[in-house]
Design goal:
459 residues; alpha/beta; TIM Barrel; six-stranded parallel beta sheet; 39% helix; transferase; Nic_PRibTrfase-Fam; Nicotinate phosphoribosyltransferase
Length: 459
Amino acid sequence: MPISDTAGVPSCDGALLTDLYELTMLQAYFERGMNGLAVFELFVRTLPPQRNFLVAAGLEQAIGYLTALHLRDDERDWLHRSGRFTPAFIASLADLHFTGDVLAMPEGTVCFPNEPLLQIAAPLREAQLVESRLLNLLHYQTLVASKAARCVQAAADKPVIDFGLRRAHGAEAALLSARASYLAGFAGTATVSANVSFGIPLFGTMAHSFIQVHDDELDAFEAFARAQANNTLLIDTYDTEAAASKVVALAHRLRTDGIEIRGVRIDSGDLGEHARRVRAILDAGGLRQTQIFASGNLDEYRLEALQQQGAPIDGYGVGTHVGTSADAPYLDCVYKLQEYAGRARRKRSEHKATWPGRKQVYRYVDESGRLLHDVLTLATDQQDGVALLSPVIQAGQRIQPPVPLDQARVYCKAQIEALPAALRAMNGTRPYAVTVAEPLRALTREVDRSTMPATAANR
């Protein structure tokens, strides 16, 4: 019998939301009595094309997952029924919970390849088991926040609203996408549950179906305007400019009842050209305060083009391209062992080698606060830059209250504003400098000497 909630939806909050190999490794560790202190770090190897930076996101959900980790009775029953695991191993998981320490970059931090977003030091079985879910949580929100930040930059000072629910890859993705995009600077979301869960401001207009179920477009506009004080009318169902003229006529009639038409939305066609024509119609009709909102498969490149055209658009709705990060739908995000039982470890696989040991990232800025470069080094190599990794969990307990999302959003805005202008551009540029410090290079050589076969070491 599968594990699911009462609605038949698979559970997303259990210890078994993991890859099978995490569990098979845990049984092998158990049989060999291996549960020493392990240090893992989560980082992104490379940037996607045209990207110049990332925005770290998802830490709050990662903390919630770690501090609540345990094996439920139904999950233990599944382990027995699967026939893959020994009774002794399953019994050993009865007291499973996270007891380790976590250091992390604050949400909203601008970051670059090979810089740890999160570092875990915990008994091996705990540190290994959580790999897949941590990657799942941090990868996705970092991916979306990084894309959303580009849209915010492209839109300049115009508000951008998340319209991503209907094209999101599942309910959790829709909620976390709304959260990550708001963190990165979106003004709000159309997803109601994102307001319920995270307090994100809500925005909404109407669908074409609302117009179509009415026999007359003007009647539809009036019905909606009277029903919603904060109204925005969708005007491109039939003829965009003709609808704008109807809005003008309606607005003068509604004013006698104290009702104002706040805005109109255009969702198709040449958005820039339609916006110019609609703006002229509205202004000529005395509706200079009525705003124009645009949507329809927008991304940072189309936003930038509309801004460069000087299109008279006051705000944008962006969904599919951010929620799926359509042009770069994944990051090369990994979770790798750095130390076990007091010894530094590293992977030497071709094109996938890692730097060993517990690390820290130091950031250097100029007198105006503009980013200059980062240094990746060992945690023991204290430098005079700003340390980006700080403790968030000690001995399994979070040590600070959750950072309010609005506060993280302000921090993220400051981080992005501190980037050199070239890094905020929509196209790729010269990579930001992340220097690997000599103590870390020296440890790497030492680890290689100690783990390399004797024949290779003597070459």
